[in-house]
Amino acid sequence: MPPSPTSPTSPTAAPAAPLALDYANTLSASRGRASDHLAAWLADHGVEPEPRFGPLRDAIRTLIAAAADEEPYPAPALATVNAASASAPQWLELTGSGEVVAHASASETDRMLADLARSAIALLSDDHHAGLRACQAPGCVQFFVRTHHRQEFCGAACGNRARAARHYQRRKEQEDPAVQKGTNRR
């Protein structure tokens, strides 16, 4: 099983996004075009793409969007996530030397589906979903966990894009009254 992407690589590293959030963000948009990075994400995690991964991602995105908007979770999305969570029975075993070994009685695909669903369940529980947000940048479809009370964007690029759009809009509004009065700027 791949290492957990939620554990930082060094003590000073910023915490990585929870597995479910990273998975949900395999769908992105740029300049009005949606991009699906699910197959590449699965390959990076050593799992073969399979049709069940798409609906699970969509269900997790639906639940994250509901949490970000402080709305009730839709029942069909809950059913999809809960079914995936139950698809791979797992248990822990304590060895004589004090090590914990995880076991699962399922295929690698079922284990990954279950891990993703369980990560989403942990992320969306009452204790953790308060920081979930949808990026406020124009055209962005990404989600993030707020790390600062004023954070509105999933990353610096989206923040820069939103500031540039506001600047452009202000300039356009300043120039519009001059155009309406009949003055030509050449």
TrEMBL record:
TM regions (residue ranges): none
Species this protein is from: Catenulispora subtropica
Zinc finger CGNR domain location: 132-171
Coiled-coil residues: none
PANTHER family per the UniProt record, alphabetical: BLL6575 PROTEIN
Protein name according to UniProt: CGNR zinc finger domain-containing protein
